[in-house]
Amino acid sequence: MLEDLEEELLEYETAGEFLTDLKKEFGKGDKKTVKVTELKRLKQGGRTMEEFVQKFKRAARGSRYEERPLVKEFKREMNGIIHQKLMELEQQPISIKQWYDSAITLDRNWRESKREKKRLRGR
Fold first, then answer.
1. What is the C-alpha separation between 50 and 68, in angstroms, rounded?
2. Rounded to 5, what percent of the chain is helix, strand, coil?
3. Which residue stretches of the chain have pLDDT < 50?
4. Given its phi and psi angles, is residue 46 left (phi above 0), alpha (psi -120 to 50 degrees) or beta?
5. Which of 14, 31, 97, 102 has the highest count of CB atoms within 10 angstroms of its CB?
6. Are 39 and 56 in contact (CB under 8 A)?
7. Residue 63 to residue 72: CA distance in whole angstroms
8. Region class of 70: left (phi > 0), else alpha (psi between -120 and 50), else beta
9. Hey, how many other C-beta atoms are within 10 angstroms of the C-beta on 101?
10. DSSP one-letter code for 82
11. Which helix (H) or strand (E) holds 26?
């Protein structure tokens, strides 16, 4: 790994990515630190919310993050449009499970709405 870095064969966008790979490569660092770093690196990007929630749950397992800190990370890492819609709800979710469920529902509705608009424009 170090040789690849020196020869510029590996590139990292953040120091966190580098540290996570380094810890995985050499087996050093406690599991909690690796999991927290992995959790903080995760972004929804182009994934559906269902895919993102599954990845988020895997990363959260072993991080020892619970409710409030977990909700904070989840909100920070989801796409902006879904985050905004969740924040505009009259009754916002409280538990992390409620956040997952609400986010998945909103994401499905948003994606269906986009498909519907596309179909209507195609006529």
1. 21
2. 70, 0, 30
3. none
4. alpha
5. 102
6. yes
7. 14
8. alpha
9. 14
10. H
11. helix 15-26
Give the whole-angstrom CA distance, residue 53 versus residue 51: 6
Q: Is 59 exposed, middle or buried (0-12, 13-18, 19+ CB in 10 A)?
A: buried
What is the rounded distance in angstroms from the CA atom of residue 113 to the CA atom of residue 9? Answer: 42
Structure tokens at 6: 């020196």
Residues 78 and 111: their CA atoms lie apart, in Å, by: 15
Specify burial of residue 122 (Cβ count, 10 A radius: 0-12, 13-18, 19+).
exposed
Q: What is the pTM of this model?
A: 0.70
Hey, what are 66's tokens?
């619970």
> Per residue in 60-81, pLDDT tens?
988 888 899 999 999 999 999 9
Residue position matching structure tokens 């596309």: 118
* Cα–Cα distance for residue pair 69/8, rounded to 1 Å: 36
